Amino acid sequence: MVWPHKSGFGIKLVRMGCKNRPYYQIGAMPSRRRTGLLPDEVIGSLDPVPNERNEIVAAVDLSRLSYWMGRGARLSVGMQTLLGLAGWTPVPPHVYIKAKQEHSTTTTTQPQESDGDGGDNGEEKIEIESILPKRLPF
């Protein structure tokens, strides 16, 4: 089989499932393929609905992902975000920007309660919460 040019492939999230219960497959497919079609190779899956432990479950075959990235496949914005939050690639800047915006809206609407002990425990908690988004941005 003849493969297209290196930049012709992308790693994307392909939405599956029902209207109220989304499910994503992580697949390698040509960049010019219409959305909604099945990928050429499924290399993982993502369940964006949190489970009973409030975890978002994602599974990725990292060897196949590195193979496709080595062939020049581009990551979609959703995949950049997912792999950045997982620690496999650098976190994209738009995740930090959105987290800062969400943090500023929550601090203006909800005043912080002081414990009265004068400790800096609240500041450390705010810094960690401002980095990670409350939900996935895709």
UniProtKB/TrEMBL annotation:
This is Small ribosomal subunit protein bS16m. It comes from the Eukaryota. It holds the Pfam family Ribosomal_S16. Keywords: Ribonucleoprotein, Ribosomal protein. GO terms for cellular component: ribosome. Residues 104-113 have a biased composition (Polar residues). Belongs to the bacterial ribosomal protein bS16 family. Residues 97-138 are annotated as: Disordered. The gene is MRPS16.
